[in-house]
């Protein structure tokens, strides 16, 4: 990360106590949007910000936490720590869309449509842009999923499949698709955790067909393969049996283990 950026246009403007956190957040966001603070730059210390804004450090701390929540800054601890302009994160989008889904503003049908649109675009671009290294990474995930399936470890197979979609979006080279995929997969994980996972004959053949299309750079066909798969998946979940509490706990424990591996 780079050194702390100077305040090129002078100190931040003092503010009144009312709505202080919102005003601090707005001013810092303005500096980030203008390019004065760029990705990787360290913001002034909490002490310096408190002096410039003429507020308490607690107020500054709350504003920084708000910026961290929406993914604009990353806070690290220790002697070399501080608040840094984010290099890119989907956390704000994930949180916002998850909350909207939880309260019913986003419906399952909305989610299904969005996942099909985003998944199709990601598959098409990945087929166009995947490097040999990208293909090797995707193939490794597919092989792991197949190995888990052969052992009857459906929870780990499912988590590997989610990882496949996330990596596919990254390979697309479009950060918007990547962030939206992260958000949609986050919600889908929660939904999938309630049900028995789809059988191998829905999931494994799709992965193999899609890998062939990506290797051959058949972009349009890769996109349609993704759409057809997601349709099959959505149809499965319409009648899928619910998991028992014990099975759900096992599924979630595998999820956490897989996160640690990756």
Automatic annotation (TrEMBL):
Q: Tell me which PROSITE patterns the record gives.
A: HTH_GNTR (PS50949)
* Entry superkingdom: Bacteria
Keywords, ordered alphabetically: DNA-binding, Transcription, Transcription regulation
Q: Which GO terms describe its molecular function?
A: DNA binding; DNA-binding transcription factor activity
Sequence ranges assigned to domain HTH gntR-type in this UniProt record:
18-88
Q: Which PANTHER family match?
A: TRANSCRIPTIONAL REGULATOR, GNTR FAMILY, UXU OPERON TRANSCRIPTIONAL REGULATOR
Report what the protein is called. FadR family transcriptional regulator
């Amino acid at each position: 990360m780079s050194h702390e950026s100077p305040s090129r246009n002078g100190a931040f403007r003092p503010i009144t106590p009312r709505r202080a956190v919102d005003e601090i957040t707005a001013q810092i966001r303005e500096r980030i949007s203008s390019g004065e603070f760029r990705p990787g730059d360290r913001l002034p210390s909490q002490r310096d910000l408190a002096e410039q804004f003429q507020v308490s450090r607690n107020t500054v701390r709350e504003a920084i936490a708000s910026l961290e929540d929406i993914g604009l800054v990353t806070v690290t601890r220790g002697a070399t720590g501080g608040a840094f302009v984010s290099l890119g994160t989907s956390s704000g989008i994930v949180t916002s869309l998850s909350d909207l889904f939880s309260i019913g503003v986003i419906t399952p049908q909305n989610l299904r449509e969005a996942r099909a649109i985003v998944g199709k675009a990601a598959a098409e671009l990945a087929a166009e842009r995947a490097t040999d290294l990208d293909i090797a990474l995707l193939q490794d995930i597919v092989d792991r999923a197949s190995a888990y399936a052969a052992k009857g470890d459906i929870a780990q197979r499912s988590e590997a499949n989610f990882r496949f979609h996330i990596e596919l979006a990254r390979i697309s080279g479009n950060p918007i698709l990547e962030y939206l995929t992260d958000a949609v997969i986050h919600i889908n994980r929660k939904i999938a955790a309630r049900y028995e996972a789809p059988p191998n004959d829905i999931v494994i053949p799709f992965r193999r067909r899609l890998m062939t299309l990506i290797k051959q750079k058949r972009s349009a066909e890769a996109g349609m393969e993704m759409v057809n798969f997601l349709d099959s998946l959505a149809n499965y979940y319409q009648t899928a049996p619910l998991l028992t509490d014990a099975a759900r706990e096992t599924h979630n424990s595998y999820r956490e283990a897989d996160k640690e591996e990756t």
